[in-house]
Design brief:
Shape of chain A: globular
Distance between the termini of chain A: 53 Å
Strand order of the largest sheet of chain A: 5-6-7-8-9-11-12-13
Largest sheet of chain A: 8 strands, parallel, barrel
Helix content of chain A: 40-55%
Oligomer: homodimer
Structural class of chain A: alpha/beta
Order of helices and strands of chain A: EHHEEHEHHEHEHEHEHEHEHEHEHEHHHH
């Protein structure tokens, strides 16, 4: 491990619910995730605990309920809800993402004293983050490759998700680029199926993309889903690169931290990080992860773009949660490591979300993908893309959509169906 | 992808709760996870749907509630609970664990129509499983390396979890082997920290293990936690192998599927799979995964041992859930691929769990680890190990513990504190 500042500490914050005494439960969690276990041990000396034990930095009771949020826990007549902050010396695990994971989110969610536990915050010190390069492209690198110097990248997703042939996919890409789109991505289900083999798809699509780039002077960014085994992902990345592609996509939960880290090391292209499976980790308010701590590990591994859902989405996530996620992706990890990634907004998106998204973030360093919001335009894809771009121009200028529509007919029409 | 039998289908079963019409919700899930999206699309032809769409194989309403299990879903005055079985043609994703994951457990837990979704079953056809080698050692290989031809491997975990030096760890191992233990594992928190660097630990511990093996004629199996980046894991594996070690451990959720698959390909030793973080995936009854489908992907990746908690454990998991998990680990994946792994029982274990565990499984092909159940014995580690082994001998012979204790004084003493 790195020998730099081993005494610097990692801080993690949890929302905790317990039917036991909160201080006792906090001590159990701290012990279980460091030097302790269920019983006192001869070798667990005071000196060892002081040196290697997790420390309870903060414990604040913020609420109480008569009904436990999760079943199976220690019975009680009241369950107290707390903010719990723990810290660990970096030297316990070294600057290792995988071992960090086992420590901050390992065997603690199922503890008997715990009727609710959510990891809500993570603060990594320079002794940890300095071992990582972070996103190789980030916002600036993505803008440069896509030829979009300001405003969001206007994007969409190939649909149907799966079932199209390589040629049918290329045909859809042709139509999208003719409509002046900035960004196109594979669906997360489409990687290397029998109907649409990866290399056939890249070959067909990049022929269209490269031809168009010669005419347009800028190249549409296509995020090809390379998700697979490590050798497959490296080979697919190299294939995309060799064919002039400018982005690769992975489903981060499906490949896991080792997969993301290896692709982060290998890549010469921005990595588009899809979060399929995220629902299992966050959907219950008393269990799992918030997005803010979770997204940090993928940025450290080198992921450049991270999905954050979208305002007024068609899933169950609230707008507040979406904005908190996007802000987290855009926040530096610490004073020594910015490693900012680019948030990707999707799901039920139209130009109506441009102004509130911009207002909430204070910037347009993002990818905004729309499906129906573009394809549904009576004027076709070009009018759909134009309308979405106009909506962003208005948002960034502080102009109401209605006013902007006065001199953008495509936007006027779009307002009828958005 | 493999061209063998692309039409064979993967079947996944879910416990679903929905405030909408169950048939409509089932169709949404099937569409979202294959060729559909929220709106009808021009390219989504009937032929494409027939070929590539997920199929609803079974939908049975089994209950109803007035309160949704998960927040945020479509409001309703009743939420119906169903068994839903979907199937997909293997050709959609090919024999790829990562893309299988995005398909069966991707963007579906957060759908608006869903107020509860748990993946309860998975049936993979030979067209999928034939691309994998599975555990390289499994039960027979583990028994051979550990020199334990029948009965469980009696094991324990190095404690304190973290904070001991390499030499202190080796001292504990010396004591355990003098007590005739079969199996010892690192804690999941202990990999390569500054206080106990991996190579120092392996060197010190294997000196003890190898010395003892010469005297005993069999070698205690030590599962060294190699969890880390891929190059680190490979290097640590090689280091363990070069020092005569017989097992490596990984935290499967921390390394992810690509990590497990690569170590599965690289390994010349049994892989001990720790499930730290599993609580986030299963703890809520209406969200995430059951163990039975989850453990299959790790066996395919090559994991030989899988943690299943233990009867009367100190966590929140029920005995029924523990036994279902162990049975799943011991069940063949399909008629063409057994790939059986060895279940690992732990947490608050003593000899009192031997008989019910044996009765529930019908075999003793398992690792039974105890901490306090061994260390707490007034006669020390040798007596603790002897008592646990005697309890298993009794369980397998159908002899009550009390009777066995009549001619095993260590067991008689143990019954006083177990």
């Amino acid at each position: 491990m790195s020998t730099a500042a081993p005494r610097e500490r990692v801080h993690a914050t949890y929302w905790l619910e317990t039917g036991g005494d909160p201080a006792r439960t906090a001590a159990i969690i701290a012990g279980e995730q460091s030097s302790g276990t269920f019983v006192a041990l001869a070798h667990e000396t005071a000196e060892l605990k002081e040196r290697s034990g997790a420390r309870v930095e903060r414990l604040e009771v913020i609420g109480e309920t008569g009904t436990p949020s999760l079943p199976g826990a220690q019975p009680s007549d009241r369950y107290r809800q707390c903010v719990l902050e723990l810290s660990w010396p970096v030297e316990n695990f070294g600057p290792s993402l995988t071992n960090l994971m086992s420590t901050i989110a390992g065997n603690l969610f199922e503890l008997y004293a715990v009727s609710g536990l959510k990891l809500t915050g993570l603060r990594l010190p320079p002794a940890f983050t300095s071992a990582f390069a972070g996103p190789a492209f980030g916002i600036a690198g993505t803008r440069q490759l896509a030829g979009v110097s300001q405003g969001p990248l206007i994007g969409t997703i190939i649909k149907p998700s799966i079932g199209l042939s390589a040629e049918e996919t290329a045909q859809q890409v042709r139509e999208l680029i003719a409509g002046d789109i900035d960004f196109i991505k594979d669906d997360e289900l489409q990687s290397d199926g029998g109907r649409c083999p990866f290399e056939d798809r890249v070959t067909a699509v990049m022929r269209v993309v490269n031809d168009a780039a010669e005419r347009r002077g800028r190249k549409a960014m296509v995020a090809f889903n390379i998700t697979g085994d490590l050798d497959e992902m490296r080979r697919r990345h190299d294939f995309v690169l060799a064919h002039g592609g400018t982005c690769v996509m992975v489903c981060v939960n499906s490949i896991g931290l080792v997969g993301a880290r290896e692709i982060g090391r290998h890549t010469q292209l921005p990595i588009h990080g899809h979060r399929a499976g995220w629902g299992t980790l966050y959907r219950h308010p008393a269990l799992g992860w918030d997005y803010a701590p979770w997204q940090q590990v993928w940025r450290l591994a080198g992921v450049d773009h991270l999905h954050v859902n979208g305002l007024d989405n068609k899933f169950t996530e609230s707008n507040a949660s979406v904005i908190a996620a996007a802000r987290a992706v855009l926040a530096p990890l610490n004073s020594a490591a910015e490693m900012i990634a680019m948030p990707v907004f999707s799901s039920g998106q139209t130009g109506r979300q441009a102004a509130p998204t911009y207002a909430a973030l204070g910037c347009a360093d993002l990818i905004h993908t729309a499906g129906g919001g573009i394809f549904g335009h009576p004027g076709g894809v070009p009018a759909g893309v134009e309308a979405l771009r106009a909506a962003w121009r208005a948002a960034m200028a502080g102009t109401p959509l209605e006013n902007e529509a006065d001199h953008t007919p495509a936007l006027r029409t779009a307002l009828g169906f958005w």
